[in-house]
Design a protein that fits this description.
The chain is an all-alpha fold. The chain is 66% helix and 0% strand. The chain has 5 helices and no strands. The longest helix has 19 residues. The chain is flat, with a radius of gyration of 13 Å.
């Protein structure tokens, strides 16, 4: 179901590699999550992104390597949207 990807480098580089290799799956996941946020939480994707951005200071403090990887995934997939809502729930 999911491809096996071989990634190298620092978190940002790994994220970009993952994002570019799995771009179609990521776009599909974003669309699925957007529907779930709308259905379960009554939020548009933009509202979910805005709400989730409140987590950025915590991510920067406690898991900066994960934040770098997430940012790399967004850039590598061409989905220059905020992927942080995927880490949160309503």
């Amino acid at each position: 179901m999911f491809p096996i990807l071989h990634l190298q480098g620092d978190p940002q580089q790994r994220g970009q590699q993952y994002g570019s290799q799995a771009a179609q799956l990521i776009r599909h996941s974003i669309a699925s999550y957007a529907r779930q946020f709308a259905y379960r939480c009554g939020l548009t994707w933009q509202q979910a992104q805005t709400q989730a951005e409140g987590s950025l200071p915590w991510l920067e403090r406690h898991v900066p390597h994960l934040l770098e990887e997430i940012q790399g995934i967004a850039a590598g997939s061409g989905s220059f949207c905020c992927l942080y809502p995927l880490l949160t729930c309503c």
